Structures are given as C-alpha cells and as structure tokens.
Here is the input.
Amino acid sequence: MKEACGVFGVFAPGRAVAQLTFDGIYALQHRGQESAGMAVSDGQTITVVKDMGLVATVFDERTLSGLHGHLAIGHTRYSTHGSSDWNNAQPAYRPVGRAGFALGHNGNLTETESLIKRAGMLPGMTASDSDVVASLLASEFSERGNEERAELAGAIEAVIPDLAGAFSFVLMDADHLYGVRDPHGFRPLCLGRLGAEDAPEGWVLASESPALDVIGAAFVRELSPGELVTIGAEGVSSRQLFDTDEVADRLCIFEFVYFARPDTRLHGVEVHGARRRMGELLARQAPVEADMVMAVPDSGVPAAEGYARASNIPYGQGLVKNRYIGRTFIDPDHQARMNAVRRKLNPLRDNIEGKRLVVVDDSIVRSTTVRSVVKMLREAGGAEVHLRISSPPFAWPCFYGIDTPRRSELLAANMSLEEIRRHLDVDSIAYISLENLKEAIGAPGVDFCDACLTGNYPVPVPVSFGDPEDDGAIGSAALQAALPGV
Ligand code: AMP
Here is the structure.
C-alpha cells in the first residue's frame, strides 16, 4: 500500500497541543485527504483520535477540548486502493510500556516481507507499512528492561536502521517526540521552534514548513537524511541512525513539481518560485505564438505565470475551479475521473473563444485531467491549444511514497511525443527538460530522486519492468482500460 501523507508533531508543555496539531495537520491537508488523526500525551496516558475524512471533519471544538497534554503527533493520510478502512488511519498506537507509543508515517517501504515475519505478523493480514513498523517497534519495546520501558528511543534505534524505502516518521511515547528520515531523505521533514531562540517554549516537527508558520513556530532546519531527532523536557538531541555509505540526499523532485505547497521551503528554496522558474525556462525551451497563457488550476498556476512573463504573452484565466471539490486523481475508473475533472473545472468562454491558448499544467500522469481540459477548451471555442508541461514525461511509477498508477497506465510510458499530441488533440506539446527542471529549482549541488521521470531508482524496487507478467507491463489490457480510444 502506498502512502503519501502529511506528518506533524509538537512538544510544548503549557500549550494547547491538540489545537496546535489541528492547525498543523490542517496546513498539511493537501498531503492526504482520506483520513486524519492525532495522538496526545499528558505524560500518563496517550489518547488517539482518528477517523476517515478531512481534518475539519474528524476534529471539532468538542473533540479538541477533551485532548489535554504537552505532547502530540498528527497525520493526514492519502493512499491507493483498499484504503477506505479505519484501521489504516494514523497515528498507529501500540499499548506497550508505561503509556504505549504512537507513530505517523509518510512514505512507502520497499521490502516488507522479511519485516512482517520478524514482527510475528501473518502474511496477508497486514494492512499497511506503518502497521508493520508499529508492530516491530512494539515487540522491540516490550522486550526492553523496566528502566527503559517508558522510552521508545531504544526500539527506534534497533528497528529503523533495518527498514528500506521511503519514510519520514513522527513518533511519541509518554514524554518524548521523535522524528526520523530515511537515509535518502525521500520525503521532507523539518524542525521548528515555538518561542524565542534563547528561551524556547516548544519544538515542532512537520512535513512542510507552512505547518510551522500557521502555529507561529520558527523554521529551524530540515532533518538530515537518516537522522533521528529526540525531543523532550531536556531539549533536542540528534543522532545519525545509518552508516555514512548508506546516506545519500535524494529528496523527491516531484515535491517541487506538484506535491508540496507553493509556500513550502525545501532545501532553502520556496516551491512557488521554483514552479514559476519552471514556466520561464519552459517558455524559452518551447516558445509558441499565442494570444493567452493559462493554467490548469491550481497546480499549473505558478508555471503559467512564469511562462507568460518570459514569453510576453498575456496571462489570463481560462478555467474556474470549484474549490469545494477535492482530489479527482484516485477515483477508480477512467469515466469517474473524467466526470470528476468536469465537475471540478469549468471554462470561461469569453476569455477563450477564438484565442490561441498556451495551457500550462505541472504534470501528465494518466492524462485524465488534460484530456478533459482540452475537450472543454475546444468546445468553448479555443482556436489553438498548445500544451506546456512543467515536468518531464512521467513514465515510471513511484515506490517511495507518492500514489501513482501502474506503468501500463502512465501515458508517457506507452506513447511517443507525437502519439501523445494526437491522443490529447492539441496543436503542440512540450515537456520541460530534466536539466531545466533542476535549474528552475535552483539548489546547486543537491541531488534528487527523479525515478518517476528517469527510471533510476535509488533503492531497489519490488518489480522488474518490461516483463508482460509484471505490474510494469507495457501495452497491457490495463492500458486499453485506462486510455480508451488509444
Ligand atoms: P492525470 O490527470 O492522471 O494526468 O494526473 C495529472 C494531474 O493530477 C496533474 O494536473 C497534477 O496536478 C495531478 N497529480 C499529479 N500527480 C498526482 C498524485 N500523485 N496525486 C494526485 N494528483 C496528482
């Protein structure tokens, strides 16, 4: 099961940590809209509240006012099939030691079979990666001596270095908050501080920096790949859990393209600026004569602004987005996804009619969104449609925590550029080059995981592509189902 989630944690004696956690995970809602939850400790008891649905649906004033403590973690979850299950909502809790412990996970482990055995779980019964890790930690935790029983740190140090794949964890026992990143740092995780530098009032962990901003915490730093941060009454301490040769910074490049909020800073770069520069470079790389540059809202907006600025073609709005409709991406079948896009986006006919349009979006995965958009724009009288995409062709599934379809369903894995152009019914199409994408991000000397664009997987993945029996089969029946009319 793949999970692309938002995680948050706060240690702040004397503060309303449940309210802070609510605000934090609300700011991370875009990372997961399927379930939300938090665990709060008062030093004696850990209380977990979690349910299916959005943050504001799961929590209200009444729920929050009953959650007292000095320490909390929170989670928003987003997963693929088999997901509508309360048991998979996080944080995961295990009642071992004095008050038990809780865990929230963003990522995707690549090797779970041996871990499932080690945790003493029955194959087929396990619901999620996070469950496996919670069970491993629980057995390690309960085997430890009495003096260590209230502290999870020993179990974390014994279990986490054996995990493979992508993980940014927030964990807590009765009195400590922990944050861990996998040795490649695939998923982001940052540390923040409440109160003044010389008199801290608390510490915060969050997937993305806006979750710090909204609760008035200052950004301190990103956790390093492989780092364990322990936070308690004694302050903040840090340890590297992995050997030097296992550690290699490979933050997911797609966080910059699509996943992260535009106001998030990653590697010191604000994501919005990176996306605008992607549009500027795309305009230089693939210019076209046109009357208006427009975005597929909201994810295409910053790059469209950049394209317009660099090309001197006026920027305009061609589509209105219904902001009360959530993600359309994970609907199970093609027609349902097309209908969902149509419900979400509606054209502005007067802005479009008779115009040559440059349409900018951040990515094409299955192609549901752009196909639906192009059809709408043509029906609304658009004279020409020139598609510009601010990421290179997405041709390889992600195994490191972003929800993507099988390779057979990825448009760019199955067609040439000209086939794609015809399939989408556009006058021209261009994707930004990988080189330009990296230049737009502008973090010199930083390496990224770009497996979804290149097929270079930094950690071995559980399928071998190209074999017709495999998940990665090209030209399979799934392709026909996913792309009717191919
Ligand atoms: P598709 O409609 O399948 O081509 O998906 C591409 C569109 O969905 C783009 O406009 C993106 O903004 C968005 N998107 C890309 N990747 C994801 C993802 N993993 N989860 C949700 N939405 C995504």
Notes: Residues 258, 296, 299, 327, 329, 361-369, 402-404 surround adenosine monophosphate (CB under 6 Å). Residues 472-486 have pLDDT under 50 and may be disordered. The chain has three domains: 6-248, 270-445, 456-486.
